[in-house]
Amino acid sequence: MSPAILLISPVLPELDRQLAERYTVHRLYQHPDRDGYLREHGHGIAGVVTGGALGISTAMMEQLPALKIVTINGIGTDAVDLAYARRRGIHVTTTPDVLTADVADLAIGLAIATLRGLCTGDRYVRGGDWGRKPLALANKFSGKRVGIVGLGRVGKAIARRAAAFDCPVSYIDRREHTDLPYQYVSDLLQLARGSEVLVLAASADDGKAIVDAAMLDALGPKGVLINIARGKLVDEDALVQALQQGRIAGAGLDVFVDEPHVPEALWTMENVVLQPHRASATEETRRDMGQIILDNLAAYFAGERPPTSVTA
Ligand code: 8YV
């Protein structure tokens, strides 16, 4: 019998097909009574495929006594208890590198879309307002002071792109990168104060919101917040208030606290650009991410170390 794999959420048809060729695939999302399904099939499940934001709860891992590998279709590990996985000897794998460019592209795209009012302009044309109503001028992106929270692979790719737009780049990270031509700042508030565009590219592993009312006030009424990392890095109520009160200029958001729920107050704000957590959602990248999942599972079941395991 081929090893049993649990898909917590749907994957691309091509990946689903390839998984089904090699493994006995259980699609949990097709079963409304998840606990009942896991009581019946959980004991045999050796591998899990899940998304970055979704992860897998510790309670669910406890329902899977034979679990050996959790493959995350993404780079965020914040929705998996890694310490628990390590204790049980469960591999947790991610899909690094292949999504870096897409995520960085979307960060810059959101910054430009927000400052230049791309969605507003699009609505203006489609609504038949061109030639009938005035449209306010937008704001420039090139040359803006960009602050990046988290200078990992994605943060660095954003920095490179921002620099190509003549933006002076500052960052905060766990450490200073003396080999890079960007300004290191050791204090979050100071970074926000010095930035016109503040980009969140940090992991959310410790679950804390780092952008609160004080950070938003430090960013200030001409500042724009871009988040392509995790919604929980931001106090969403404080963000909505700051936008409503004009205490920051705008926001470009790909991620939210309680996806797919997006605070309704944001829906009508012209200075906000919203995306449905799509930073890595291109055909090319999702195909490459799928291949990494297949490679990790194949390695594990061949008795080798899964190449992108973060737990061993
Ligand atoms: C994915 C992500 O959209 O990399 C991550 O951590 O959140 C995204 O790339 C997500 O994992 C959905 O599968």
Protein described:
With 312 residues, the protein is of the alpha/beta class. The chain has 2 domains: 4-96 and 283-301, Rossmann fold (3-Layer(aba) Sandwich), CATH 3.40.50; 100-274, NAD(P)-binding Rossmann-like Domain (Rossmann fold, 3-Layer(aba) Sandwich). The protein is 36% helix and 15% strand. It contains 12 helices and 12 strands. Strands 8-7-6-9-10-11-12 form a 7-stranded parallel β-sheet. A 5-stranded parallel β-sheet has the order 2-1-3-4-5. Helix 7 (153-164) links the parallel strand 6 (146-149) and strand 7. Helix 1 (13-22) runs parallel beside helix 12. The longest helix is centred in the last third of the chain and has 19 residues, at 283-301. It is globular, with a radius of gyration of 21 Å. The two termini are 27 Å apart. Bound molecules: 2-keto-D-gluconic acid. 2-keto-D-gluconic acid (8YV) binds next to loops.
Task: For the structure shown, list the relevant keywords.
15% strand, 2 domains, seven-stranded parallel β-sheet, 12 helices, Rossmann fold, 12 strands, 312 residues, binds 2-keto-D-gluconic acid, alpha/beta, globular, five-stranded parallel β-sheet
